[in-house]
Structures are given as C-alpha cells and as structure tokens.
Design a protein that fits this description.
Layout (H helix, E strand, L loop, with lengths): L1 H11 L17 E6 L8 E5 L8 E5 L3 E5 L9 E5 L15 E6 L3 H4 L1 E7 L6 E9 L7 E13 L10 E3 L5 E4 L22 E5 L28 E4 L4 E6 L6 E5 L5 E6 L11 E2 L2 E2 L15 E4 L16 E6 L12 E5 L5 E7 L4 E7 L9 E4 L5 E4 L5 E6 L2
Antiparallel strand pairs: 1-26, 2-3, 3-4, 4-5, 6-7, 7-8, 8-9, 10-11, 11-12, 12-13, 14-15, 15-16, 16-19, 17-18, 20-21, 21-22, 22-23, 24-25, 25-26
Length: about 400
C-alpha cells in the first residue's frame, strides 16, 4: 500500500521544471551493464585513466588502494598500483572519510606524477593532498616512498570532506572541499573566504611559492583580498560530491549535496558564490537570504520529497552524486548530456543544458538497477562508468 501511494505521488507530480520551464523528462535509450564482475575492490570511489595511451583503467578504493585493470569488461584480475591503507582513516560509521580523490597529472606520460586526497592517520580529522610518482622500474606500480605532501586541511567534523580532485583544462589542480561537516554549516564556513572549507580550491602543482609545496595562480579570484585564502576559486558550497570538466568544452560541473530539502547541480565559474548556507538550492535556508545578485543559483535542483511541488517527473533523492558530460563514441544519443545520480534513490539521469537560453532543456532517466551510486568515472575514450559501495562497477551502454 505504501509503495502504491508513493508511485501515485510521483506520477501526480507536475512535469514542469522548478524554474517553470518545460523540460523533456522522457527516458533516454541508455542502459547499465555490469563490468569486471570477478574483480573485488571494496568501496570503489574513483574510476579514471592515465591519459598515457595505455588504455588502462585505474580504480581507487576508499580504503586506500589503487588498482589497475585492462580495459576489457570481462577482466578477472587487477594489479595493485598503490596501497596506503595503513595511512588512511576509514570507518563504516563515519564513511565520509577515507581515500576520497585521485587524479593523474596532465603530463603523466612524461613525468609519472599523480595526486591523491585522503584522511590521514597522522593527525585527527585531517585531510591530506599528496603527490606520488610511478615506479621507474614498473609502470604498473607506484613508488610509495615518493609521497610529497602538498596540502594539509584540518576538518572540524568527520563528514562533508568533499574529496574530488581533478585537473582543469588550464593544467591547475582543483580541489573540492565540504563545509567541515555536522549539519547546517555551524561555523558559517561556506560564506567565509578566510577558510578553505566550503570552497573549491585551484592550485599550480608545477611551481612553488615560498613556504608552499605549490603555487597560487596569480589569476585566482581572491588573490590580494585581505582576509581571503588565495587558493579559493569558488565558494558557498556545502559538500561537493564529485566534480568534473567537460573534456570538449571545459565547462566545470559540480554536484553539491543538500541539507534538508534540495540537491543541486552547478556550473562553476571563477569567483562564484553558490549560496550555502544562506541558500539551499534555489531556496532560502533557515535564516539565510532571499535571492541576491551575488549568489549564483544552481542550474538544476531536485527535492527530497515528491510533495515539494514543482518536481520534474517526480524526481526525488537525498544525496546527489555528480558525474560527467558524456563525450564517448559508443552511445551517440548521450553525447553532450551531463550524467549524474542520487546515492539514496539509486536514480540515474542525463541532463541537457541549453547554453543559449541558459536553462535545462532535458532531464531524462537512464536505465539502472536502483543501487546506491557512489561515483562516476571515464576511461581514456570517454566512456562512462559508475560504482556502488558493495564494489559493483557498471558501464553505460546504448539501450533499446
């Protein structure tokens, strides 16, 4: 009976966007297929590639390991590329800590450098971003002794660590940080330029400023502003859970997990203030703010409850998992769509943004299995994968 009532509520929800624009919500002919079924990797949190022509797939575990697989859906074996489990804090009851981010340097083929983000055992409630290099003797092994710490970030609580790191088209390293955790941003970090928390940082890992293991790009938006952290690229974010650059256009897509009612997607620009904790999605948060010109609204939002009104096709969820704009060749119908999911509902969607009208024109469901989606990733050809906490890895394929 409860299931029937829920389905009725979803079907009764108006098929209009929260902004009032007509949006195509019809299913798109894309399906999910499980790959690497014999490979066991606990809590696979990053799927990526080295962009070195090898076509290898790298999968990182939240426990603190990185594995290499051949790009063959039936691969039965993986090679451990890096194992730093003894340096990583992870607890199932505090599962927003752990090994959270992994990115190859754009020139990895020549310099062998890659970067990781993890919660360290060397200090309580502390995130570390480090650089490693590949072994000179074995391209399938990292040199664990090569670790160089780049940045250390104290966290007030165990949750909202963010953790995505990725290189932009400009060659800089971008770092997504949560607001520090607990709930509601109790310290106001999202609107405080004097802390890294609640922000996306942008650093130059190819140069060093005095006293730093990196350089601050001179064109960062808050360089020279009194009291502001110069590493900040954008702010007003609650808990970025996966961000990526469109490999064709360079646009910067960010999924930001909501607090009480709304999940959101942002296209992030330099210096942008995305509103948290004054705003949640396109709405005033508690004693926060009504719309203001300096607060950038998300391009898309969806609610935690179908009864919220203005729900497109009954889309609901409670924790967004940001993804990628599809630029592969195996699914022509998906080209240019931003693919994302919800961790709680298990739904997957393909979103199309109309750059001329500055609005979402499509938000279409993708065939999946209703499982929690932990993370998305691309292989060297731009094909898309997603992972589940239980260790299953799926690939998006053309559907009927």
């Amino acid at each position: 009976m409860k299931l029937c009532l829920l389905l009725a509520a979803l079907l009764a929800a108006p098929l209009t966007a929260t902004a009032g624009d007509e949006v195509d919500t019809s299913p798109i002919a894309v399906a999910s297929r499980r790959v690497f079924p014999e490979v066991e990797i606990g809590r696979p949190i990053v799927v990526t590639h080295a962009n070195d022509g090898s076509d290898r797939i790298f999968i990182a575990s939240q426990y603190g390991t990185i594995h290499i697989l051949e790009n063959d859906e039936e691969s039965e074996d993986s090679t451990v590329f890096l194992d730093i489990k003894d340096q990583v804090v992870y607890n199932d009851k505090q599962n927003e800590e752990g090994f959270l981010g992994f990115a190859f340097h754009p020139d990895y083929k020549n310099n062998g450098r890659f970067f990781v983000y993890y919660t360290t055992t060397s200090a309580p409630l502390t995130s570390v971003i480090s650089q490693f290099t590949v072994s000179k003797a074995d391209p399938n092994k990292a040199d664990r002794k090569s670790e160089q710490e780049i940045l250390r970030i104290p966290q007030p609580f165990w949750n909202h660590n963010g953790g995505t790191i990725c290189f932009g088209p400009d060659g800089c390293l971008y770092i997504g940080l949560g607001d520090g955790g607990k709930g509601g941003d109790p310290f106001g970090n999202g609107q405080n330029l004097g802390t890294w928390l609640g922000s996306i940082l942008r650093i130059d890992v190819d140069h060093q400023d005095p006293g730093k293991a990196y350089a601050v790009p001179k064109d960062n938006p808050f360089v020279g502003r009194e009291g502001a952290k110069p590493e900040i690229y954008a702010y007003g974010l609650r808990n970025v859970w996966r961000m990526s650059f469109d490999r064709k256009t360079g646009h910067f897509w960010v999924g930001d997990v909501g607090q009480k009612l709304w999940e959101e997607i942002n296209i992030v620009t330099k210096g942008g203030n995305y509103g948290w904790n004054l705003r949640e999605g396109k709405h005033k948060y508690e004693n926060g703010s009504d719309p203001r010109p300096d607060l950038i609204e998300p391009i898309w939002e969806y609610p935690h409850e179908a009864v919220q009104g203005g729900v497109i096709g009954g889309q609901v969820g409670k924790s967004i998992t940001g993804g990628h704009v599809y630029r592969g060749s195996a699914i022509p119908a998906l080209n240019g769509y931003y693919v994302y999911a919800d961790y709680v509902s298990g739904g997957l969607w393909a979103l199309k943004y109309d750059w001329e009208s500055k609005r979402v024109s499509e938000n279409r469901s993708i065939g999946g299995f209703g499982l929690p989606v932990m993370s998305f990733g691309e292989d060297q050809s731009g094909e898309l994968y997603y992972t589940t906490p239980a260790g299953a890895i799926f690939k998006l394929v053309a559907g009927q």
